[in-house]
Amino acid sequence: MAVSPVAKRGEAHEEREEVDIYSLDDLRGVGEATKEKLASVGIYSLLDLAAASPRELVDAGIDAKKAEELCLQARVLLVSSGFLDSELMTGKEVLERRKSLERITTGCSSLDNLLRGGVETQAVTELVGEYGCGKTQICHALCVTVQLPREKGGLSAGAIYIDTESTFRPERIYEIAKARGLNPDKILEGVVVSEVYNSSHLQLVVRELGRHIEKYKARFVVVDSIISHFRADYVGRENLSERQQKLNATLHRLLRLAEIRNVAVVVTNQVIGDPGAFYGNPTKPSGGHVLAHGTTYRVFLRRGPDDTRVARIMDSPYHPSDLEARFRITEKGVEDADSKR
Ligand code: GTP
Ligand code: MG
Questions:
Q1: What is the CATH number that goes with domain 101-336?
Q2: Beta 324-330 vs 333-336: how paired, if at all?
Q3: Is 145 near ligand 1, meaning CB less than 6 Å away?
Q4: What is the pLDDT tens value at each position of the chain, 341 positions in all?
């Protein structure tokens, strides 16, 4: 049985079944025709299936009852093989699982402190803020830092950049890597980019993401931005509920991928004017409740004085909400606000 970072999570389980989590061969009642249907929605392995929702299988032409049954079978097989925790866990087991959670340094100690050590795997972290506040810059920095060895705050792993706004800049990756004393060409090889043209394309790329994560040994995925295509493709109130439903499905898929593959996912989001605000901040994150509930952590960014940027964590169950991090965008990516320019 292949050993993955996820595999370590189940080491406490005593009874193990030999299951190939990278194929569908251990599933009952799945022939070539069903495999083809599953492949059409990006499902090639038990890991993919466990991260999918029955609804996606139905879209591929599989009958609803069978879809439910297959998704359940995948989870049961992953649990019995020790790759997933069982649905009910003791507090100790939850703690055990959290131990397999890792963090990626942003390269900026104040931001890392705010995030309790960096961007977490098994979670979706949302960076939200007005234009120019540094969302894309933080994502570029993380594409470099994830490749650092663990003792330097990285995971010695690759990055996948899903670019919806054509703002990915290899030159910037090169600059950050060089400024950090790394081999820029090698670092660029460790970043794969997917240019996404509309919201259906984004959904397709997210569906296939499990395979890309495997192929490129990625532990960091960024979707910059998660919302722009949805906003552009579903204009008007009459299309809002369909937009939110698709956005929700995309976010759920990302969260399940993060959990099952033990990767860190970062999504960026814009702010929109809030006509309901009479005082305080006249803007609010776009995406409504779906984004507010669909991500694990929400980091709010804004411009500060003297070309600095300020980050704060909103609505987190375990981060102090009054803590703020001040940082600056520099040739090294992002650094503490008091570092030299
Ligand atoms: P939107 O995508 O427009 O919503 O904004 P964003 O939050 O993604 O902003 P982004 O991360 O692109 O930040 C833009 C700011 O980063 C610019 O105003 C510059 O101050 C800074 N910046 C962009 N490129 C570089 C660079 O190559 N070097 C340095 N030092 N700063 C840069
Ligand atoms: Mg941007």
A1: 3.40.50.300
A2: antiparallel
A3: no
A4: 333 434 444 444 445 567 888 899 989 889 999 999 999 988 999 988 988 889 889 989 999 999 999 998 998 888 888 777 666 667 777 777 777 899 999 999 999 999 999 999 999 999 999 999 999 999 999 999 999 999 999 999 999 999 999 999 999 999 999 999 999 999 999 999 999 999 999 999 999 999 999 999 999 999 999 999 999 999 988 999 999 999 999 999 999 899 889 999 999 999 888 777 667 777 888 888 888 888 999 999 999 999 999 999 987 767 777 789 999 999 999 999 976 55
Question: 128 C-alpha vs ligand 2 centroid, how far in Å?
Answer: 10
DSSP string for residues in 263-280: -EEEEEE-EEE-TT-SSS
The verdict on whether omega for the bond into residue 339 sits within 30 degrees of 0, i.e. cis, is no
| Domain extent listing, the chain | 5-80, 101-336
Place of tokens 């996404």: 196
Q: What is the CA radius of gyration of the chain?
A: 20
Length of the chain: 341
CA of 219 to the centre of ligand 1 (A): 24
164 CB near ligand 1 (under 6 Å): no
Matching CATH number, 5-80, of 1.10.3720.10, 1.10.150.20, 2.60.120.260, 1.20.1260.10: 1.10.150.20
Report the amino acid identity of residue 65: K
Ligand nearest to the CA of 176: 1
Catalogue the long-range contacts made by 180-184 (C-beta closer than 8 Å, 24 or more residues apart).
180/107, 180/144, 180/332, 180/333, 182/144, 182/147, 182/148
Residue 298 near residue 124, CB atoms below 8 Å: no
C-alpha span between 46 and 256 (Å, rounded): 13
Contact 184, 21 (CB under 8 A): no
Nearest-5° Cα angle at 307, 306 to 311: 105
